[in-house]
Amino acid sequence: MNTETASDGPALAANLTLRGSLLGIWRKLSLGARLSAVVVMIYILMALFGTAVAPYSATNFDMTQVLQPPSFAHPFGTDGFGRDVFSRVLVGARTILVFGSVATLFGVSMGCAIGLVAGYFGGLLDEVMMRFVDVLLALPGLVLALLIMTSLGPSDVNLIVSIAVVFMPKSARVARSTVLPLRKLGFVDAARMRGNGWVAIVFRELLPNVGDELVVEFCLRFAYALLLISSLGFIGFGVQPPTPDWGLMISESRNVVSIAPWIIVFPALAIGIVVVAVNALAGGLMTKGGRRTARYL
Amino acid sequence: MAKSAILTATGAGFAIPTGMILGLLCALKRNSLFDHAVSAITIFAAAMPEFVTGGLFIVIFSTGLGWLPPFASAAPNKSLPQAAAELVLPVAALSLVILAYILRMMRASTIDVLDSEYVKAAILKGLSRRRIILSHVLPIAMGPTLAVVALSIGWMAGGLIIVESLFGYPGIGRLLVFAIQNRDMPLLQAITLIIATVYALANLGADMINRGLDPRVAAR
Amino acid sequence: MALLEAAGLGVAYNVDGGLLRAVRNVDLLVDRNEVLGIVGESGSGKSTVAHALMGYCASGAVITSGRVSFDGTSLLEQPAKVMRELWGRRIAMVHQNSLATLTPTMAVGRQVAETVREHRRISRTDAHRIAADSLRAVSIQSPELLMQRFPHQLSGGQRQRVSIAIALSLEPDLLILDEPTTNLDVTTEAVILDLLLEFQARRGSAMVYISHNLGVIARIASKVAIMYAGEIVETGPAADILREPRHPYTRALLECLPRPGLTKHVGRLRSITGTFPSLRNLGGGCIFRDRCRLRSDICDAVPDWVAVGKDHAVRCWNQVAEQSWNNETRGPATNLRVGDGVVLEMANVTKTFGNRSVLQRGTSQMVCAVNAVSVRVRRTAIVGLVGESGSGKTTLLRCVAGLERSDAGTIQAMGADLPADLHGRSREALQAIQMVFQDPESTLNPAITIGGNLRRHLLALRPVDGVTATEEVRRALTSVHLDPAYVDRLPAELSGGEKQRVAIARAFLSCPSIVLCDEPLSALDVSVQAAIIQLLLDLQMENKASYVFVSHDISIVRYAADHIVVMYLGEIIEEGPSESFDTRPLHPYTEALFSAIPTIDGESASKRIRLAGQISEHDKTTLGCLFAARCPRKLGMRCEQERPPWRTVGGRRYRCHHAPNDLLALQEAPIIRAAEAMISPEWNSARKPAHGN
After folding, report:
1. What's the whole-model pTM score?
2. What residues of B are in contact with residue A261 (Cβ under 8 Å)?
3. Domain-embedded: residue C375
4. Reported ipTM
5. B193: Cβ contacts below 8 Å, ≥ 6 apart
């Protein structure tokens, strides 16, 4: 601190969660969040190396091994076509994570761009953009995705497109609501007074401040993407076979569930755990609130 | 369609009040064992898609324990207990997710309100716990929760599709899948319209209640 | 036995990394009929003390020592049930920010009534009646109407009065007020202080009034405790402390304030060197040691209380030991005089705000914020724009800045027309006009480092290469007396004053000729304000710049400005060289404004004029005088029907139907009709009632 100056009052400590190195972030997470982070890492590893590590092919039929219960040879058992469930689960990780992340990335970026611009400008532009967004919001997620898939035709690319479209309005809303309080602040005015146009202001001034919430939003959307992909797969409109998809695996095995429950259980757990983990991680990244009045209520 | 309505209504009727009350309790007993336990459960419940929970329920309660039937039978005149028993698993699968969301939202917004300056000021006026919670906390905490409730109704539309397919329940969801698979456009449009309308009405209802509760919203 | 007694009180907060000792070893005594004023700047722990005095302990706060007793019973460590009996009924609190402390979803009337209902078993109608009475007692006319509104629909002054009504509704024995008037206009503040004094005189309650504003404390307190960094450093009768402060901190604080007669050409305002101590790692010894002018070796030991007068005690080894503090001569703050030539000229600038949305039909509410205002700024001059809320001063400033587009009128800078829109302005124009904003917390981009904030501002205005840019940024930081190492820090790590310094540095990066200042001091502590003013004056000398300085704080404006412009409801009602304002304000509004400022000296010569009603958009009229609805010197129908003409006296001009001599005569022996204005009780009792009081 400078010595020759007069005092300027007490200084406050910074409390931004996502600031700083990875290690710094790790330290700030609670136990639950750390656990979730580890789980997510495991899934990512599965996605990267699943095909290499899987003991059996995930797609080849083997009618001699139909509906085998879990055993040493087949840790998760086999399904109605003799495919090893364990291998299918491993490979399915890549499918769902890749599709999920790509779709979320597209959807969230588009949505944020729209939301940031709409939020910054306000007025007519804001209203028009938000009405457009609201039209898309009129239908709940799964229904909308289904509709798009059916109109475009089932394919992998269309799956990504439909999920991105589903995500776009919600991300737009979130981005807009985070930008709105920032619009009127001093540093935005200062930027205007140095001649910055709206592009510079939105992306250089406002975006860094919205970053934290966007990361959280991305995680939550990603979790939802996983849900959507597997739900669509369950209905039969998801990833195209023979690529293993956990939802499709469950759907295919509905009829034999009473005699071969393992075909449902393992993919179900796979989906459930990763979605929970991503959600928990997102929750852990959010800053925590205070606890002032608990004693009196 | 009536069957879907029953499913939805039961699900909502169960999930909404339970979610709100539990959420409130969690917020009040913040960081207690109760809160941690319930929060942990909701994280799981919120994350799993309906077919996962539905599937697991079937495996546990039907195949495993044999308590409840996994499928809706096609018999035309079921006795009431039979119909009720058939409802349990689908309703549970359907409503678990929204229960979790409502609970967490209620908890989060209640915590927000509890930390606010005006609640502190109300405490310092010497008001009783009950008065503070009912008049000062709830009206504001419910706002965001109602938005989630409206969303949930929409979510349930998607959930219906899955749950009905899973449990073989004859309702509008299954009809939708049927329409898609058979490229039955008019049917598809009709069903979509119905879903969109119900969703819009739910949002409208939530908006109106919110206006009644929070005058700041009305003033905008 | 004192009504409220705190002995050895210590409160600390659990934060990551240890214990933050916010309050240490505090002894306080308040009796009935007494008003204890606690003076403290930010970080002094005064709010913590306020809560502790109520027996309220927030989660995360720990009472580390001491006790607080009210009427003989201890307040700390009582179960909530017991405390609920006391709160609201015998001890009541008025909080600072009424918008945040009134429940937004509940009608205001209900909030007043519920306290009554809670503590007394009475019916709803009875409680409603009592609530209406309480509101009437805080000078709210027609309370029935107001009671149905919600907090966000009321003005700041009304809300604060509601908060006070809530606190007073059950006539408590002890009233604790935490900066209740800080966010209010001066004229409203004056009315509220009158109310409080009146209540206290009537009921005989004890009051604890917390504020950083020494003038207000002088007005309202009978005894004073000065807090610094969690400790009390001096206590005693208000008059004694303010006239003869014995603790170096108190004295330094008083020296920070501009006094009537002191202008920038006469002398500097002293500020307090050094920085606030960290409350986590407290060294031993006197808490003020690092910043004290009288420091010596003994100060390494914690000072004991020393009695220096009747009931006047000080915690210092080297108490300030001479008579009056006026004697010290300090050099002038600036040598700069007003130059020739006009750098900025605003002619008939008008700005109206509409409330339409294109997609919504319905009546639009047009608010004319600035109505045909013309101001001239000379080279190297400081023009002070003064006014209360709704005066339009900030809007006018923003129109010059280009942040708002004026609807009519022209603005010329350095002889050339200035486009109303920022996009139309040339780079030279952008370089020439820069601004310092009000809130230091939001003036810098919190996600970017200090260096980053400055650098991008520089490069946008003066494209230089990277090396030069780095150099310039460092130079900018040193010019505002900040360590150049700050380039890598984030704004959140700096204090409010430091952030404002960076903001000022940023404004000067392009060597502007005109710097617009939008209330740059209002969010800062008093001791910091003095330093920042000096900084602004120094930079002005270096850069030969002109300032347009908007403020609601008239004492600062009188000190620093060369020319003062007084605005009311969007129009100029009086303007002139600042020296002339010292001798006589002319326009009745200016007169009321000046008389409402709480001063330390409490000169009985300052006649207290209270304005009835409040500033309201509805007063705007194209016919008569804007001020007609509230003017204590109203002539009658003429004021309501004819626009008042401009009148000139020497360098000053103002708009009023009264001629200058009439106004001067009126000010000598004012006859104020009670129907138009309220008169403070002291004034009223000091002279015989004249007309229908």
Report:
1. 0.82
2. 59, 63-64
3. yes
4. 0.80
5. none
